[in-house]
# Entry
Amino acid sequence: MEPVGYRPRQKKRTKRCVVLIVLLLIIVLGVALGLALSRRTETFKTTFMDRCKKFEGNDCEKIWAAFQQAYVGKDPCKVPMEAYDPLIKAAPFKPSCNRMMFWSKTKDVAHDFTDKRDCFVTLEDTLLGSVLDGLTWCGKEGSNETFTSDCPEWADCDDNTVRSFWSRVSAAFAEVACGDATAMLNGSIATPFSQYSIFGSIEVKRFNSANMRSLNVVLVTQENNVSNCSNASLKDLQKELDKGIKYNCKEVSEAQIQACSSNTEIPCHACW
Ligand code: N1C
# Structure
C-alpha cells in the first residue's frame, strides 16, 4: 500500500531535480560562453603578436597594451581618433623618404606592386599598418574583452573603433612623408580624389612642404577608362596641397603596373 502523501513528495523531488538540471545547464553554458569569448580575444591577440614580432626591436606586449587601452570597455561608436595617440607613441613612424606610397580605392593594385617590388612603402608595410590590416575589432561598455564580430560597420558611426584607428595611423604616416611621395589613385571611377576618403580628408591635409618635395599621382587606368589626369577632382587635390609641394600626375595602365610588378629587371623608376 502506498503511504499517504507519497505522490506529492515525489513530484516535489522531480521538480527539484529539474531546477537543478536547468541551473547546471545555465552554469555550463555560461562557462562555455566565457571561454569562447576569452578565446576570441586570445586569437585576435595571437594574430596581432605574430604579425608584430616580424618587426624586430619592438616591445610587442607594450604596443598591444597601448592598442587595447584605446577601445577596451568603451562604446565602439565613441572611440575618437585621439584614443590611439598612446599607440602612436608606443610605435612611432619612421619616415622612408622618396619611397612612401599612398593610395585610395586602389588597395589591391598598390599592394600587389609593393608586395613584389621593394621600391615603395605603404602604411601596411609598417608595424601598425601590418598588424591590423584586414582585421575588425571593438570593445563593449562594461567588458574587458576584444570582440571581432558585431562591431559597427565603417559607415555606421564616425568615431568607430576601426575607422578611428585608420584615421589616426594614416595621419601619423602622412605627417612624416618626405621627399618625393607617390599616390596611386583609381582612374576607373568618376572621382579619383574624394575629399571624404582617408587619403583626401586626413593624409593630404598633413603633407608638409618643409619635408615633402613632390606628390606624384599614378592614375591607374583600365581599357574602358572613366577619368584622366585632367579630372576635376584632381584639381581639388592640387588646391588642397600645401604650397611648395610640386604636383605631378601620370596615367598608367593597370597592365603596365602588373608587368612591372613581376619583372624585377625593370628599375622601379622606369615603371611609370
Ligand atoms: O579611404 P582611403 O581608401 O582613401 O584610405 C587609403 C589611405 C592610404 O593612403 C593609406 O595610407 O589611407 C591609409 N589607409 C590604410 O592604410 C588602410 N589599410 C586598410 C586607409 N584605410 C586602410 N584600410 C582599409 O581600407 C580601411 O579599413 C578602409 O575600409 C579602407 C579604406 O580604403 P579606401 O576608401 O580605398
